[in-house]
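Example 3.2
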Amino acid sequence: MLKVSYEKAIDLILEATKEYFNGSRTLTDPNMELAKTCLRLIEDDNIKIKEEYDLIKSLQILNEFNVDILPLQVRLTVDKLTLIQHCLNNQRDAYKNRQRLLTLATYLRIEGNNNKLREGKVLELIAKKAFEDLKVKQKCLWFAINNGPSDILDNALEHMHLIEIQMLHKNLELWMPSPEFKSSKDEESDDSEDDFTDAMTTVKEIYFTTSRNERICSKNIGNFNRNCKKFR
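Structure, written as tokens:
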């Protein structure tokens, strides 16, 4: 009976696994099950076998984030950090699933075995995506205004004004009539007037909210400066 060395057996199993994996169209493809069957032949804790297992597991997470990609494309992607970016772009609230994205990054061996560098790069992408959410950005800025040093207040308030304008702009876009309803403009003139009134009400609310916040911040700055003078 012909005996095969352990190293040779690993190579043969990996070769067969990759062939089945690369020939699969989706995670549920029959070839993917054959790839898993090949990997189960080795019960030892082998690094190369584990890498193939993890690559298969990564497909499940990519599928959860609605990333439409062939298994072969996942394998051939040189900069696998872009796959994390695809997840963030495909789902609006994907940045909230921080742990799931970090797990995906581990399965994809982003930055090899450097856990800290991998986590840092993924968290940076998550933070950037989260900061695109105007409400999250607004909360972050208010935290900075209330807890940060006085020298950042002017800049923070300026950014806050811009965010409030962006939020108002988005609300106005929702009230804009779609093209297919333009022909019935006269019939819906009363509704348009109501929408305009709502828009103006929102503008006034934002204006008064901003003015009130500015007064609060100015008062806090004044108190801060007075307290500083006491300790001089």
